[in-house]
């Protein structure tokens, strides 16, 4: 029965891939009216937000945004299933420890899938997904990711997921012709390489850092489609994966929802048929999204500000009306903050610019850049040679100077690249220092 519902959602999704912007907005408005009325009546925390702002649910677009901290602090009153955070955390952690990923808690509507987000700083996020939300998610993903829709439905597909914690979510799509294989990231690399090569999946899904590590360790596979998830996909990595495995597309998913999906032309589009995006402009053309999920009910996401920054592109050649994401620039709290040339204060430098500068250095295979103090940058380089060190420092200095940073005041510390713990989300550029 579940696979029939997934198929129904996948077929319905075809009608939601609007080519007319007005039709898309009309559809989203209709969903939002119903969703906001329901959520305000069933989520005590959301009702309280409306009361505090003195707004009726119809005025939801004026609601002051919340963030991950509030979402976790008010988890018990935010969800509409009467589930407590402590129960979710207990179940999810036990599942991660035992590497047995079918964690559920029981809410008002029945069994709910739970999971933890791989937060690298600050508070760990927990998510809660109801049955209907899960089946719809599976249908939407299926419709957008199957390379040969709809014929692909009748051909056998082997889908390999390389994930830290598979989560019950991905199980939903299991069908007669779709075979899902979960390769646990915490297993030794040589075992993963052997398994992936033997499986030779038609669709390969995983974080780009892991897919690259497998490629470099000798994995062979010729999938029809490589799907990058969970991390920012750099152009250089996309290129290496295309050459090594096959065509790469990106899915942008977070605890907050399925935010963007690839189109038939391989570009990333906001998932505007199911989520509403308000965009807050920042310097350098960047946008910070405030999202409202127009469907999700167990854990409503209403005017929720994301950590990530986006750069949006012009209309896409595929003709879809949903806006195109040129790149997911990364988390705002990873932006460097360095002293300015005119000594007036501090300058913000987005990770994307530094990734761009470091990616162009010939002979440098990989790197990490961390702002570990008010004036201190730590560079980890692979390989670390006198030449890569000189070129890397110079490239970063040029990028910083362009942004108006007082480069003479910035100290560099260089060392060899230290491997990250398995399963840790990779961020090549980050700021671990926090102003007091
Ligand atoms: Zn497109």
TrEMBL record:
Question: Which domain of life, per UniProt?
Answer: Bacteria
Supply the InterPro entries for this chain. Answer: ANL_N_sf (IPR042099), CapK_Type1_Caps_Biosynth (IPR053158), CHP02304_F390_synth-rel (IPR012685)
Q: PANTHER family, alphabetically?
A: CAPSULAR POLYSACCHARIDE BIOSYNTHESIS PROTEIN
Q: Please identify the protein, giving its name as recorded.
A: F390 synthetase-related protein
Q: What is the lineage of its organism?
A: Bacteria, Thermotogati, Deinococcota, Deinococci, Deinococcales
């Amino acid at each position: 029965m579940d696979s029939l519902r997934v198929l129904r959602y996948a077929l319905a999704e075809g009608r939601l891939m609007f080519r007319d912007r007005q039709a898309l907005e009309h559809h989203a408005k209709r969903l939002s009216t119903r969703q906001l009325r329901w959520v305000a009546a069933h989520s005590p925390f959301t009702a309280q937000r409306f009361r505090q702002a003195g707004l009726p649910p119809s005025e939801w677009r004026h609601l002051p945004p919340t963030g991950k901290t509030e979402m976790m602090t008010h988890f018990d009153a935010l969800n509409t299933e009467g589930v407590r955070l402590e129960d979710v955390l207990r179940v999810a952690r036990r599942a991660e420890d035992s590497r047995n990923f079918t964690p559920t808690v029981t809410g008002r509507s029945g069994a709910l899938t739970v999971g933890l987000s791989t937060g690298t700083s600050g508070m760990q996020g927990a998510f809660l997904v109801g049955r209907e939300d899960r089946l719809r998610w599976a249908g939407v993903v299926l419709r957008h990711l199957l390379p040969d829709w709809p014929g692909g439905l009748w051909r056998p597909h082997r889908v390999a997921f390389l994930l830290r914690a598979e989560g019950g979510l991905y199980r939903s799509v299991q069908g007669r012709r779709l075979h899902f294989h979960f390769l646990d990231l915490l297993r030794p690399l040589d075992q993963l390489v052997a398994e992936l090569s033997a499986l030779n999946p038609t669709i390969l899904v995983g974080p780009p850092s892991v897919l690259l590590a497998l490629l470099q360790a000798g994995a062979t596979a010729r999938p029809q489609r490589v799907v990058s998830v969970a991390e920012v996909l750099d152009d250089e990595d996309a290129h290496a994966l295309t050459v090594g495995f096959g065509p790469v597309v990106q899915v942008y998913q977070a605890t907050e929802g399925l935010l963007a999906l690839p189109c038939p032309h391989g570009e990333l589009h906001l998932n505007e048929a199911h989520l509403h995006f308000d965009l807050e402009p920042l310097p350098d053309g960047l946008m910070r999204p405030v999202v409202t999920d127009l469907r999700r009910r167990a854990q409503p996401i209403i005017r929720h500000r994301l950590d990530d920054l986006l750069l949006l592109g012009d209309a896409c050649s595929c003709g879809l009306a949903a806006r195109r994401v040129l790149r997911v620039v990364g988390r705002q709290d990873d932006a460097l903050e360095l002293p300015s040339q005119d000594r007036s204060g501090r300058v913000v430098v987005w990770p994307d610019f530094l990734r761009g500068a470091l990616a162009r250095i010939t002979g440098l295979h990989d790197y990490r850049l961390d702002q570990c103090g008010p004036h201190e940058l730590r560079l980890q380089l692979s390989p670390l040679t006198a030449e890569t060190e000189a070129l890397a420092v110079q490239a970063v200095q040029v990028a910083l100077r362009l942004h108006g940073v007082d480069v003479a005041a910035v100290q560099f510390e260089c060392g060899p690249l230290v491997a990250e713990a398995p399963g840790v989300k990779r961020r090549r550029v980050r700021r671990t220092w926090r102003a007091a």
